[in-house]
Design brief:
The complex is a heterodimer.
Chain A lengths: L4 H8 L15 H19 L4 H12 L3 E5 L5 H6 L1 H4 L13 E8 L4 H16 L10 E5 L5 H9 L1 E9 L10 E6 L12 E6 L7 H18 L4 H4 L5 H4 L4
Parallel strand pairs in A: 1-3, 2-3, 2-4
Antiparallel strand pairs in A: 4-5, 5-6
Helix pairs in contact in A: 3-6, 6-8
Chain B lengths: L2 E5 L2 E5 L2 H8 L4 H6 L6 H12 L5 H4 L9 H8 L3 H4 L7 H9 L14 H10 L2 H9 L5 E2 L3 E2 L6 E4 L8 H13 L6 E4 L6 H17 L6 E3 L3 H9 L7 E4 L4 H6 L4 H14 L9 E5 L3 H4 L8 H13 L5 E4 L12 H17 L4 E3 L11 H13 L4 E4 L4 E2 L4 E2 L3 H11 L5 H9 L17 H7 L4
Parallel strand pairs in B: 5-6, 5-12, 6-7, 8-9, 9-10, 10-11
Antiparallel strand pairs in B: 1-2, 3-4, 13-14
Helix pairs in contact in B: 1-3, 5-16, 7-8, 8-16, 8-17, 9-17, 11-12, 12-14, 16-17, 17-18, 18-19
The chains are: A alpha/beta, B alpha/beta.
Amino acid sequence: MSADPLDALRQATRARVALGRAGDAMPTGHLLTLRQAHAAARDAVHDPLDDEALAHEIEAELRVGVCRVRSSAPDRSRYLQRPDQGRRLAEDTELPRGEHDLVIVVGDGLSPLAIRRHAVPMLREVLARLDGWRVAPVVVATQARVALGDEIATAVGARSVLVLIGERPGMSSTDSLGAYFTYDARRGRRDSERNCLSNVRPPHGVDYAPAADTLAMLMAEARRLKLSGTALKADPALAAAEEGPS
Amino acid sequence: MTRRITLSGHTYEFADLKALLAAATPERSGDALAGVAAASEQERVAAQWLLADLPLATFLAEHVVPYEDDEVTRLIVDTHDAAAFAPVAAMTVGEFREYLLRPETDTRGLEAGLTPEMVAATSKLCRVQDLVSVARRTPVVTAFRSTIGLPGTLATRLQPNDPTDDPLGVSAAIVDGLLHGCGDTVIGINPATDSPRRTTDLLHLIDDVRERYAIPTQSCVLAHVTTTLQILERGAPVDLVFQSIAGTEAANDGFGVTLDLLREAHEGALALGRGTVGTQCMYFETGQGSALSADAHHGVDQQTLEARAYAVARAFDPLLVNTVVGFIGPEYLFDGKQIIRAGLEDHFCGKLLGLPMGVDVCYTNHAEADADDTDVLLTLLGAAGCPFVICVPGGDDVMLHYQSLSFHDALYARQTLGLRPAPEFAEWLARMDLMTDDGRVRELTADASSLRVLTAGLR
């Protein structure tokens, strides 16, 4: 243990302990540090995704076709207040229809920043593990909630959907990407019928390759059992992947 | 039954009681999401005019969620105390608001005669100052090892959450809170994993700290009630049984609870008899929007449903209840204005229904709110006689990823408003040389004896 007991406190946790005081309040440095963290989280929510640039990047880097769609939420403010609109495609949406096993949707969600940073490298790892899947063109979606993927799957004629989406920013993690897989995706699917892998954000969170390994295993099992969600989580083949803190 | 009113030549119509209550509710995003909000500002006031003239007794005859379909409605109706209701039985909602505001009115003793819908309706007519002044005159006192809710006190739940339930991290946060004079309501952890083993380990961790320093407070790990019941039967040191609850049977079903299950848990914890200055041993959390998020709202506005959750809580004589007002997100409470008002409504309604109603003064990063808003709500709650608030290190919960109050915030509120910690805990702080004679929590130097003592156990 170090000489200053307050240092021992600080070293014991990532929580903001032993900040010191100015009277009863926080010292100015900590006040501004907290404000800065909140500002970063707010900007992560509100800075819009440049979906056109992202689509070009995916095409150029990964050599796959890309379509772009919007949800029916007209702007960020409405998106935040009306999650139902973020789950529905905009009325004028047109997507090419085919016969696919899977469509991958890249959605801005609550952190467009997470998508800007992690979507392309994550997609690269996932696509490399999809031998034997008939995969539809990637769909980039804005003002998107996870369930928007269900409508997209139906529209493009895909059995299942994998949604890569920006997660709600915290004070210390503003760019966390989540992956949600739904087998037999269609409107009205409940959250309990999806499987989720969260906190993809190297170097601090889960790295792309192990995240893609877990997803590939999960998706293979889902395809074998023809289901996803809590019932799949209970499958013994996946028990190893489910251990550890949530 | 349809109710109508004409204002400025326009006639407004409300198909039933729940439509009227919803339209009369001050603006919030969750009611718009549910499709029950007033269509215009004038319609909202039209509904408030009608509500003001509605006899309180209407709520005993007309139910917003049908009696046959919902055990919460049955609980409300079957436990209503007509004798306690008698003094206000002839009043309208508008008259009842005025009655509550009169200085000679004693609001205590009324609670068993009031239903959630009556107090929710009244709150919809109230200004913020009404919500503050009435709640202030309605103290609710509960006790286990410390006494919560005495006038002139403000207690704090110390929430030492850790993303991996790491014992060292949790311990450091507990020590930090104690050094700031916090933890008199409960030392309560939200576990990252709801497993019986993890819950038991964390409970032992808190219990050991509490025993070692003889701290007059309660331990709680906020696991699901079934987990707590399970470990309680195996002899874990359970002080309080925690559960999240809501205002409809279907929403409670979403939480995995029924009234029978809560009854069983209450009896189990009572039988342990671990309290010293009191026996109340249940802890509930609630929050506007929980029924809608479970798709179990029956077309009723979220604030009325929130008040109905208090009927569930009061059936089990709780030590603590708090609303997690800004936690649930901007789709239910969009911005600071909505969060502040909702926090004060919840406190007002909880108190009038006889609950020790605390508030988790907080916001998420996607809400239009910041620390200035939580300062405003905290200050108003302090003025309103709120029994307790929740505090985390630096106001930043590193597990649940939202911002609540910091320990500093509690110091500010106590100092500015002249409030003290729970009396047993204040004595302990003085004994540990953490508090001065005039009630100020000391600013510690590195060689302070209390600092050495409390950090010695950090392993």
